[in-house]
Amino acid sequence: MIDGDAKKLLEPFEPSAEDPWDRAKAAHLLRRGGFGGTALEIDAALKAGPEGAVHALAEGDECDAYRDTLALGDVIVASNDLESLQAWWLLRCVRAGRPLREKIALFWHGHFATSLAKVERARLMLRQNRLFLERGLGPFEELLQAVSRDPAMLVWLDSNDNRRGKPNENYARELMELFSLGLGNYAEGDVKEAARAFTGWHVQGGEFFFDADKHDAGSKTVFGKSGAWDGGDVVAMCARRPECAAFLARKLFEFFVHPEPDPALVAALGESLRARGLRIGDWLASLLQSRAFYSRRARRAVIKSPVDFAVGLVRVSGATVDGKAMARAVASMGQSLFAPPTVKGWDGGRHWISAAALLARVNFAAAVSRSPKLDAFGDGSVDALLAAFVDGPIPAPVRDRLAAHVAPLHDPDTRMRTLIRTIASLPESHLC
After folding, report:
1. Cβ neighbours around 44 below 10 Å, total
2. CA angle 69-30-253, nearest 5°?
């Protein structure tokens, strides 16, 4: 039996006179479902309403700059340079008209953490990135089947060493522990038998290759079921277990809404995801319109990742930035794209915040404030800049100190740049 209060949190948010659909909620949606919104984007979301605004995040119009950037991928990977690859993705995020697609690709990159350091071929990392972008909002089982055959993933988890008579357990273990079920929801014997099912799943010439001679075609027992299972059978078994929906729903909820949902809410989340056939886009659209998403607990409850912070700052300011410089800055903040630290990805949360990481954020904000091009922000006042970059209440003494800080600056452009740099360094600017 699912807790009734938890179910109510997943009901659609209904605007009312006491709790209206306003700029603060529209801005909250654009931060979580994307990377933040400009004043014009917030206006559009406000006009569209909660449902229309969510639809636009995934299905809005892409600009020529985004399409041109996306098309450069095949050219960029020729250099096999990590920094170029990182710059390419970050600039896509800055220019995206459908930012939810880039945001979910970022989620899957942390979930199916794979690094160029071991894969060594940027073209394979590009292919995996496109997989997340194109299928990230589709049915999870289809995505998991595709990832299980993805050449970058197979190299990353040593699948070429997995052969009949000498199974390598790396992929089978991570499939269950990190990708679909979580610790405690499978037995060690399930991993060993699943590893046999994946024997012969290799990479040859940068492509998935099934080597029948290396495959163990014998009977295996996985989750108490016996048969001549292959890897695809095991993937399907994992995706269809009830634990998978709850495991995924919790991770997605913590990424998009707030950390540490209580067990009753996790159960309700899992049930709702199962009811939608693990179709991520459909379920996520409902989550981003839910009462939980617009609850007080969800407001400014997530520490921005380096990508969120940097991309959001550039998008909202309208700054022109060098992609490689941005990639270096994001890496110095602790998030090197295409190079997660472990198979578990990035820990996130408070792990994003350290003395060195905060200094890197402040330095990036200063660099953005020096951009040759910046958008205008109303009358350029403290309140106008706070509305653009924080869009939420800050303590009155902080607002007064900001005003006093820029009071001697009579040149409007200098005052605006100083405010951007200073506001982006406030604690509130690091919360999503």
Report:
1. 17
2. 105
On the CB side of 95, CA atoms within 13 Å amount to 18
**Residue 227 is encoded by which pair of tokens?**
């048969």
Q: What is d(CA 43, CA 325) in angstroms, rounded to the nearest whole number?
A: 31
- Answer yes or no: are the C-beta atoms of 23 and 301 closer than 8 Å: no
**Confidence band for 2, pLDDT divided at 50, 70 and 90:** low
What three-state secondary structure class fits 302? coil
Give the residue from 378, 354, 273, 344 showing the smallest Cα distance to 306: 354
Q: Which two tokens stand for residue 58?
A: 């995934």
Residue-level pLDDT at 392: 77
pLDDT tens, residue by residue, 20-46: 999 999 999 999 999 999 999 999 999
pLDDT in tens, 171-207: 999 999 999 999 999 999 999 999 999 999 999 999 9
| pTM across the whole model | 0.96
Task: Give the DSSP H or E segment for 144.
Answer: helix 140-148
d(CA 69, CA 291): 36
Give per-residue pLDDT as tens, 76-115: 999 999 999 999 999 999 999 999 999 999 999 999 999 9
Enumerate long-range contacts of 187-192, CB under 8 Å, 24 or more apart: 189/221, 190/222, 190/223, 192/167
Q: Give how far Cα 226 sits from Cα of 163, 218, 221, Å.
A: 20, 10, 4
* Side-chain-side CA neighbours of residue 34 (13 Å): 32
Nearest to 112 by CA among 71, 78, 154, 83: 154
**Res 1 pLDDT > 60:** no
Tokens of 364: 């990036």
Give the number of other Cβ atoms within 10 Å of residue 228's Cβ.
Answer: 11
Please, which residues have CB within 8 angstroms of residue 147's CB and are 6 or more apart in sequence?
Answer: 112, 128, 131, 153, 179
Q: What is the dihedral of CA 336, 337, 342, 344, to 10 degrees?
A: 130
- Can you tell me which residue has the tokens 């595709």? 146
Sign of CA pseudo-dihedral 225, 231, 236, 242: positive
Q: How far is residue 201 CA from its own chain's centroid?
A: 28
